[in-house]
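Narrative of activities, Objective 1.

The group set out to show that a structural description can be obtained from nothing but a protein's sequence at a throughput compatible with the screening campaign. Below is one input-output pair from the validation batch, recorded exactly as produced.
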Amino acid sequence: MVLPSGDLEYLTGFPRRAPSFGNIEYAHQWTTGALFRSEGEPVYVIPQGYSSFNLPGGVEGDVVQVRNLDDGVEVFARTLARFGRIRRIGVSARTFSRTAVRMVELTGGAELVDLDDEINALRRIKEPVELDAMRRSGHICDLVMGEITSSVAAGVTEFEISSRVDYLMRKHGGKFPSFDTGVFAMGSALDRDASTRLTAEPLVEGLGMSFDFGTVVDGYCSDFGRTIHIGEPDDRYLEAYGLVVAAQEAGRRAAVPGATASEVNAATRAVIYGAGYGDWFRHRTGHCIGLDTHERPFISEEDTTVLEEGMTFTIEPSIFWPGTVGVRVEDMFVCRPGGAECLNTYSRDLVAV
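Output recorded for this entry:
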């Protein structure tokens, strides 16, 4: 049983709606998804409300419609009965607890099996058509960064800049943001941390304005970041910026088939730690990316997954030192022999406005 998610879109092309902050639900929502068998096509179970708002073109194949006035449990039980005696049910990572409990009850105690590792393994290596979508998604970020630079100035608010970033991503063909757009200033002129991703306060000189944004093209996400300095940068900023760019390059060179995700993380961190800024590189180096913004494996200390050619991931080192300096650079990469290939083309040269 696979519910609407990146997993179901990968396996069948079943589309997802735009993401939202809170839950959006319809009658019998827990029944929504596809039941797969070892032979034959999947059986889609789709409630009336979900279908009306999210699938205007319908779905081709074997579809069980659950109408608003139906007994959802009875319809779902009847659908499961089509498969005969069910002893084990594999579920994807985003299966509702109610769905899982109902399936166990309706099958008389079938064993539930977590299929997240198996489905993740299928999705890790990106095919050429997937890479093409990711390049186009990343290219939109490159275009937006080039256009938004002229908007960064003292007196403008982060909220205004963030709103324009979201507009420009749509203008250039992005379906919607792949996550909440972050625009946050840090430096000696402001005692603020990167965990506050957006404010309505006017910007002042002496700050590094960091960007964190992405969009969606044909279901595939991008994740991108740069930092622009407002005013003349001081020596601390110049040093930190150079270290972050060098750290990303070290990670890129280390990201070859056969290396582990943790080794890429270590290579990236070594540059920043070696210069004495290790306490201020406080997050993982990156994460795999594709139909979801954050996919496994993670480019992090705890993840010993061996990288394979065709895996896509971010390398996004930073130095976030509240009240002192804030710098980040982020791009998407694909694992290749000789070092990862960058899917973005935007320059990493220091920019001050």
